[in-house]
Amino acid sequence: MHELSVASAVVEKVLDFVRAHSVKKVLAVRLAIGELSHIEADQLRFCYVAITEQTPIQDSALEIEPVEAVVQCERCRYRGRPKYWDDALSVGPIPTMECPN
Which domains are seen in the chain, by residue range? Predict the structure, then answer.
């Protein structure tokens, strides 16, 4: 569960910023999460809420913007969405680093 370590790092950075700039209130923290990071947004939010309890950012919302994976093929110069692997054993389609061409 690397969501806990990601949430901890985000909260630490935000609290450092709050202290350094004497911020009175944080309404939201916006975070872009890449598709290839395999971070579950709901788990990240759960960890964020737990970690921010009794801190100056306790009531802030964690807003997550998903960022789609993009690959670039050196052979054919394709740039765009990767090929996806969909197997019966996987929960859903998994992006690969392969060119779809």
Answer: 3-67 (3.30.2320.50), 70-101 (no CATH)
Closest to 36 in 3D by CA, of 95, 98, 99: 95
Q: Which residues pair with 43 in a beta bridge?
A: none
Tokens of 67: 């960022």
Give residue-wise pLDDT tens across range 21-52: 999 999 999 999 998 888 999 999 999 999 99
What is the torsion angle, in degrees rounded to the nearest 10, for the CA atoms of residue 69, residue 70, residue 73 and residue 76?
A: 130
Decide if 45 contacts 80 (C-beta within 8 A): no
Nearest to 65 by CA among 95, 35, 24, 26: 35
Record the pTM.
0.80
**What does the mean pLDDT of the chain come to?**
91
Look up tokens 């960890």; give the residue.
47
